[in-house]
Amino acid sequence: MLRCRLDTSNHPYRTAEIIQIRTSEQDCKKFEYYVHYDGCNRRLDEWVENDRFSHSYTNKDSIKKILNTSYLDQPDRKITRNQKRKHDEINHIQKTYAEMDPATAALEKEREAITKVKYIDRIQFGKFEIDTWYFSPYPDEYGKQQKLWICEYCLKYMRLEKTFRYHQGECTSRQPPGKEIYRKGPLSVYEVDGRDHTLYCQNLCLMAKLFLDHKTLYFDVDPFFFYVLTESDKHGAHLVGYFSKEKESPDGNNVACILTLPPYQRKGFGKFLIAFSYELSKKERVNYRGALSVKELSHMTSITTEDIISTLQSLNMVQYWRGQHVICVTPKLVEQQLNSFQCRKPKLIVDVNLLRWTPPKKSNKAAKK
């Protein structure tokens, strides 16, 4: 463990762990160090130069030892089971796997090892240069670039700015593929079938992983629909965010993954996407997750019964009476909740009258269920 300063001089030194080392692109005689700050979210993991360390804690011998044993930066070299065990021990993989079933624990261990180092620091996406948060498994040499250029319309990713500029002049796409199912003002939602537009959806998943820690879907996109939210101007439809949905969900989930891109966060788009997913569920007339004790309310809202009960409990609207739980709602209690901060009106509301969508036909196998 070393002491390292966060990204500005105003931050104090924090205990940090060196995960990986690479040669600086600016000076081949210098090294950059990928550090994880103790007790911090992995979003803060970053590549730093030697001047960010507290010199009183910098041990050249220990850094040299890390450099000599840095096998993760050798893509062609196989990692032995013993090396992986030592790597997990050195990097202090959190011992919370005992709470998981063995299969889940094994997958989580593998994910931690693979995604520990984030090489792509930022992306150019349309007019935005966006700092990335997490590792994403871009293939081959693309995955180890410090910056990627991504077309905001077709989502093609490139290593070089000149390639990106040339592509901008050649690309004819100005909106997502698929069918536009909603439009109100500058906002549109497109339904994109992962089977029909595989490459677009794969690229969308790869980009999304840069901002999502736990995400496992990258390449097998056929079983999913992607609902892409855009904001249009005279240049085209700019991607704001999306959610994906399984065509046939065995667990009854109406959202598999959801993301609002960082430049559009805190503007109400995330809540809009969630609300939109529920509007689709209403049209499907699907009630998720098991038996319904509040069936009518769940059917009207497409909110799960568990979520309804949990929300009522948090609002003190469930009382224990004569050996059972009953809903107890008074006009005063309703008025208090409606006037509370949590119940403020969303910035963006889905206008169901503008939703042009019919549920896709279920397969015979799904229908029998």
TrEMBL record:
One GO biological process term: regulation of DNA-templated transcription
Residues of the signal peptide: none
Record's keyword annotation contains Acetylation: yes
Major site of localization recorded for this protein: nucleus
Subcellular location: Nucleus
Keywords noted in UniProt: Acetylation, Nucleus, Transferase
Cross-referenced InterPro entries: Acyl_CoA_acyltransferase, Chromo-like_dom_sf, HAT_MYST-type, MYST_HAT, Tudor-knot, Zf-MYST
Gene Ontology terms: cellular component: MSL complex; NSL complex; NuA4 histone acetyltransferase complex; nucleus
Reaction it catalyzes: L-lysyl-[protein] + acetyl-CoA = N(6)-acetyl-L-lysyl-[protein] + CoA + H(+)
GO molecular function ontology, one term from the record: histone H4K16 acetyltransferase activity
EC class: transferase
The name this protein goes by in its record: Histone acetyltransferase
Source organism of this protein record: Caerostris extrusa
Chain's gene name: Kat8
